[in-house]
Structures are given as C-alpha cells and as structure tokens.
Amino acid sequence: MTHDPLAERAYRELYPGKEPPRELRVTYSAKFKGFNARVLMTPRDITFSLSRKFVEASDELKVGVMQQLMNRLFKTKHETLEIQLYSKFIKNMTDYAATTRVDPYLQDRFEVINTRYFDGFMMVPNLAWGTYSLTKLGHYEYATDTIILSTALKEDEELLDYVLYHEMLHKKLKFDEKPGGFTRSHTKTFRTAERKFHVKDAEKRLERFVRERRRARKTKRVPPRSKPFRSLADFFRF
C-alpha cells in the first residue's frame, strides 16, 4: 500500500509496531472553518480531510490532528507530543481569531450578559445566526471564536439569553484536556457557573420550548409568530 508520508508517520507514532490496516490518504478542503478536520474509513482506505488552513501549518500540527482523529476512530486514548500541541493550539486560537461578523441584535444581548455576569471584560466574539434548529440551539467554535445561535430562539428572548450565556461560558472556560486529545467542556466548574443565570428554571423552560415546537412540527402546525423584540429595559431590571 502507498501511504501519505505524514499520515503514515502519525499512525506509526501512535501505534508503534503496527501496520496501517488500510491505505492512508490526506486531502485538504475549504468546507471546514478554522483548523478543523475529519476522518473517514472505507474498506479500501482511511482518508483525513483537513481544512485548507493546514496547508501552511507545521507538520507537527498536521500529525497532531490526525492522531487525535485516529484515537476517535479506533477508540484509543494514546497520547503524543503532537496531540498536546494541537490541543493547546486550538485552545489558544480564541484569543487571536479575527472578529469579522457580528449581528447587531446579538451584540446587544451579548453586552447585557457580559455586563451582568462577566463584569464587561469579555471581548466580543463573532456572533451569528444559524439555521432554524431544535437539536442544536447554540454552538461555540473555538477555532474561529464564533457563537452561532439557532433562529428558533428569536421566539423567546430570555431563552436566547440563556443559550448565549451558556456559549459565552464555553468561550471563557474553554475545555479540559484529557488523554488522547479528548476534551471535556461541561465540567463541574462550568455547571456551577451555568446555574448562576438569573432565571432559575431556564433549563426546564428550554426543554419545554423545544418539546412544544417539535410537537408542533410533527402535527404540521406552524409555531406561533415571533413577537417583535422590545427594548432591553423591558426584560432586565438592574
């Protein structure tokens, strides 16, 4: 079998003495944001698809991300210096990512939460709307310092604030590193901070919100039309 040299190096460092079970291939794609990647195994080969940003990156970073993907693929937890390097690289990228897209309304909500819970010290990340999703209401991308929120949350500003606060905690606390390049974001520290949100039953309200809208979609009923946003003062009393 003919292997990509860098992928072969990554495999043999991670599994010394073992032969790759399939041909190892590497491709670069513009589909990924930041320094993200994925791996796909077929009966013929194992293909690592890396973001094009990796083209100019060091070999150590490329090896690190491929080894991290192999740990997930083969359900192992081996540790290497390259895996540690890649994890630290991603963890610190949030401090250097450019802010290029900020939705004005989400920025207003961000500033309210920033003042109330973070003493106004958190730097504004990229803030954007995603699609209408009831499975992923919010997401924080470390590599691009971006918070993305589901448009479903436009129906309830208080729940929007709760999800936004949750993602802002990810930006602040980042993640704990575990052996093999695995990470853990919802730590005890994270959960303790999450409970400081001023609406104590926010999680239950969010679950009910999702449940009602899923039921409405199943019965082909249209969810209630969003009410227009009111001023910040209508929602917060300091």
Please give a structural write-up.
The protein is of the alpha/beta class and 238 residues long. It has 2 domains: 5-93, Zincin-like, CATH 3.30.2010; 104-234, Metalloproteases ("zincins"), catalytic domain (Zincin-like, 2-Layer Sandwich). The protein is 40% helix and 15% strand. The protein contains 7 helices and 8 strands. The chain has a 3-stranded mixed beta sheet with strand order 1-3-2, with helices on one face. A 3-stranded mixed beta sheet has the order 4-6-5, with helices on one face. α1 packs across α2 and α2 (59-74) packs across α3. The longest helix has 17 residues, at 157-173.
Give a short account of the largest sheet: 3 strands, mixed
What name does the CATH topology of the largest domain carry? Zincin-like
- What is the assigned CATH homologous superfamily of the largest domain? Metalloproteases ("zincins"), catalytic domain
Structural class assignment: alpha/beta
Low-confidence stretches: 228-238
**Mean pLDDT over the full residue set:** 87
DSSP strand count: 8
Strand order of the largest sheet: 1-3-2
Query: Can you tell me the number of structural domains?
Result: 2
Report strand %. Answer: 5-15%
Q: Helix segment count?
A: 7
- Helix content, binned percent: 25-40%
